[in-house]
Amino acid sequence: MFLVSSMREEYIHGKRGDRAVINGYSTASKVVVAAALIMVSVFSSFIFTDDIMIKQIGFALAFGILVDAFLIRMIFVPAVMSMFGDKIWWLPKWLDRLLPNLDIEGEKLLQELEKGEKQNN
Predict the structure, then answer these.
(1) Could you tell me where the beta strands, DSSP code E, fall in the chain?
(2) Residue 106 carries which DSSP code?
(3) What is the reported pLDDT for 14?
(4) For 118, how many CA atoms within 13 A lie in the half-sphere containing its CB?
(5) What's CA 13's distance to the chain center, in Å?
(6) Is the CB of residue 64 less than 8 Å from the CB of residue 46?
(7) What's the CA gap between 3 and 77, in Å, rounded?
(8) Which distant-in-sequence residues (6+ apart) come within 8 Å of 33 by Cβ?
(9) How far apart are CA 24 and CA 53, in angstroms?
(10) DSSP 8-state assignment for residue 17
(11) 33: exposed, middle or buried (Cβ count in 10 Å: 0-12, 13-18, 19+)
(12) Residue 63 has what pLDDT?
């Protein structure tokens, strides 16, 4: 979530293609690494208990977090997004009309501010 939303924010603010992916990745990757390391350390601590079931669950969760965070989120997702470039953000018009317009990045606010500046000049 952090990586892709950061890449989307870079795209909305004018970066295109690989630039949006690279800038968004460099901004949010530290958060993903920190969260993954915290979760892996917590789940790995379950390995030191006496119950064999808890050990297995702790190992499986720690391994799953490692694979998800480092392979999927930090390698495969940015690579696929980089391959597709600007097309990754394309949305069919019929679906765009159905979905609510959540302006999380503040795109419309920036457009309104730019219009106000132009009118004042």
Answers:
(1) none
(2) -
(3) 83
(4) 6
(5) 16
(6) no
(7) 9
(8) 69, 74
(9) 39
(10) T
(11) middle
(12) 97
pLDDT, tens digit (0-9, with 9 covering 90-100), for 7-66:
888 888 888 888 989 998 998 999 999 999 999 999 999 999 999 999 999 999 999 999
User: C-alpha angle with apex 8: 19 to 18, nearest 5 degrees?
Assistant: 20
* Structural contact between residues 43 and 25, judged by C-beta atoms closer than 8 angstroms: no
pLDDT one-digit tens code per residue, 60-110? 999 999 999 999 999 999 999 999 988 988 889 999 889 887 776 677 777
Let me know how long the chain is: 121
Tell which residue, 25, 24, 29, has the closest CA to residue 11.
24
Q: DSSP secondary-structure letter at 14?
A: T
